[in-house]
Amino acid sequence: MGRRLSATCRFTRREKATRVSLLRVELLKPFLYFYFHSVHSTSIMGRNSIHKIKRPPRHSKGPTIIYLENEDDLFELIDNTENPLILVLEGVQDPHNLGACLRTASGAGVTAVLAPVKGACGITPTVRDISCGGADDVPFLRIKNIGMLLRKFHDQRIQIVGTSDRGTDSLYDVDFKQPTALVLGSEGWGLRKVTGDLCDHLISIPMAGTVDCLNVSVSAGVCLYECVRQRM
Around Cβ 230, how many Cβ atoms within 10 Å? Predict the structure, then answer.
C-alpha cells in the first residue's frame, strides 16, 4: 500500500513538473517567435504593415522590345518609320540622366536613342529603374563614331538639330515636322564643336533666369515635346 501511495505521489510530482514546464513554454512563446523570425530575416508584420510592402513597378509588364545590334538595324528601322525622330546623346555619363532621357523618349515616341561606345553610359540596372520601362521600350544603340553616323543621316535627308548655349536659333523657330535627329551633349561640356559643325541647326532654349543652361535630361524633355507639339 505504501509503495503504491509513494508511486502515486511521485506521479503527481511529475505531472506538476510537466505542467510547470508547459506554462514556461507558453510564457516564452513570444520571445521564441521573435528570435526565430529574426534569425531567418523575416519581419513581424502588424495589422497595417501590408501597406508598407513594396509593390512591383508599373513597368513590370513586358513591352514589345526592338533590339538594335548594329547600324544596319538602325537604318532599317528608320526606313520603316514614317517620320522618324532620333535622339542622339553625345557623352551622357550619369545613369540617372540616361534613364530620365529614355523615359522621356518613350513618352515622346522617339524612334531610337543613340549614344557613343566610349565616354558615355550604357544600359545598367540603375538606368532601367530610372527609365520606368523606357529602357525596354525605346530601341537603344551605342555607336562607335557619332560624326560618321551624322553624315549618313545627311545622306538620308534627316535634318540634324544640335542643342548648345552657343546656338543662334531658338528651339521654337525650327521645323520639327520632318525627319529629325536631335543631338544633345554631355553634362559637363555640352555639345562638342566638331559635332555642332555637322548640325543643320544649332539651337538654344530660351532662359529667363540667371542660370546658363538646363540639365541634359530636362533639355531633352523640353526639345522632344516641342517636336511632339509640332507633329500633333
Answer: 14
Q: Which of 136, 119, 132, 202 is nearest to 166 (CA)?
A: 202
* Residue ranges covered by each domain of the chain: 2-44+48-52, 67-231
Q: What is the edge-to-edge ordering of all strands in the sheet holding 180-184? A: 140-143, 112-116, 85-89, 180-184, 159-163, 201-204, 169-170
Report if pTM > 0.85: no
Q: pLDDT 10s digit of each residue in the chain, 232 long?
A: 445 544 444 556 666 555 656 666 666 666 665 655 554 444 444 444 444 444 444 444 444 567 788 899 999 999 999 999 999 999 899 999 999 999 999 999 999 999 999 989 999 999 999 999 999 899 999 999 999 999 999 999 999 999 988 888 999 999 999 999 999 998 888 899 899 999 999 999 998 888 888 899 999 999 999 999 999 9
Cα 188–chain centre separation: 21
Cα angle for residues 62, 116, 164 (degrees, 5° grid) = 105
Domain 67-231 grouped into CATH 3.40.710.10: no
Residue 134 near residue 224 (C-beta atoms within 8 A): no
Q: Distance between CA atoms of 16 and 22, rounded to whole angstroms?
A: 10
